[in-house]
Amino acid sequence: MRFQTLDEWLCWQEGLHSSEIDLGLARVRAVLHELGHEQLNCPVISVAGTNGKGSSVAMLEAIYLAAGYRVGSYTSPHLLHYNERICLNGEPVSDVLLCNAFERIDQGRGDTSLTYFEFGTLAAIEIFAAKPLDVVIMEVGLGGRLDATNVLDANVALITPVDLDHADWLGSDRELIGREKAGIMRAGRPAVCGDLNPPASLQQVADELGAQLYQSGRDFSFLEQPGQWRWRCGERVRDALPDPALRGAFQKANAAAVLMVTELLAERLPLSQSHIREGLANVTVPGRFQVLPGDVPLILDVAHNPQAARALAANLSAWPMPGKVYAVAAMMMDKDISEIMSVMAEVVDHWCLTSVDLPRAATAGQLAATLAETVPEAQYEICRSVDDALWALAAIIQPNDRVVVFGSFYTVAAVMTGAYNAGLSTSQIRGD
To answer: How far out from the chain centre does Cα 289 lie?
Structure first.
């Protein structure tokens, strides 16, 4: 074996390819052919979109696990440990399983160079192919059409809300981005769109391919009721559904699209009403409006684009408290920082601007300059790290205040691993 530990494998993979992102399927397809896993022996659900992908994967996983099915799931990025990306029956895979998969991929790739993400995607497929699974759920990393996960033909494609993000790779408007996301659709197979205001390009691609697209609000719908909600598709109705155990009114829209996916797979993977209810009631996703309880609530959210920022601001507005809202923000340079700040300025009283240790991260000074230009009246301070920002706030926050940490997965991960949270229990950090 080339390496003995997971850290050694991952460090090597980071420098294996000439660039961090290199969209295209040729390399992955070539290696997958050598591994002999062009198709898996169970239904595959692919999930693309700008926001809501992680929540949708988690809901699908929770529902199918509640029904006793054997589930493989692949997501990215991770928060604390790389193993979180590949789960079997809701549990991250072991270092040994990952290292063995990496070794088989390394032997099969020959001279083919792979990116860090491509290596991980192939590892997920290699692991899933060796297990007796009933369903596999694949979260797309970037876009869809040219993303490494798209080497698998989805039995059902799910596209969550589409917004502007990764413009350098996907396009500068929702129509172009929607066309890239729609690339996970397959001819003669169903696709589901959970975006209530979808770009027209999604239906255009479906028509071009001959895929049947089920659109939220047109082909299926949800109706909010006191303490519950109803889902409908034609004559098929699911009543008295619990709110998803994920904060945010938009999660019902995500859940409605998830139920459409399960309905399309019902012949192979039947579900009872109790399975749906149990899955929705128990689903958890760390870092999505995750509230760590305390005298002053600490809210963790990976929001890193304008649409996600609007959802975060809406969640804060829907949970009014008499105190102030303090924001700890660290973001990547390639994001629409100005628009994110403009959205969050509606609910934030004081900013702590900082950075994370990554080459593409914006510096605290760059964030400060953008904030001063975008929201001239904003109150802010610059901190060396996320941890320093939290310690600084600890000296001034009062009961009924709130602290929200957002801007990227790395920003949230810095809280979970930092000294500030050393006293928090694992169950609090994971949101269990």
So the answer is: 13
Vertex 247: Cα angle to 244 and 251 (nearest 5): 55
Judge contact between 409 and 308, C-beta under 8 A. Answer: no
Query: DSSP per residue over 314-363, as a string?
Result: HHHHTS--SS-EEEEE--BTTS-HHHHHHHHTTT-SEEEE---SSTTBPP
What is the set of domains in the chain, with CATH numbers?
Answer: 6-282 (3.40.1190.10), 290-430 (3.90.190.20)
Q: Which residues contact 333 (CB under 8 A, 6 or more apart)?
A: 360, 361, 362, 366
Say if pTM beats, i.e. exceeds, 0.85: yes
With CA atoms as reference, report the closest residue to 155 among 48, 5, 261.
261
pLDDT digits (tens, 9 = 90+) for 213-246: 999 999 999 999 888 999 999 999 999 999 999 9
pLDDT in tens, 31-50: 999 998 888 999 999 999 98
Split at pLDDT 50, 70, 90, the class of 428 is: very low
Q: Which residue has the tokens 């996970």?
A: 184
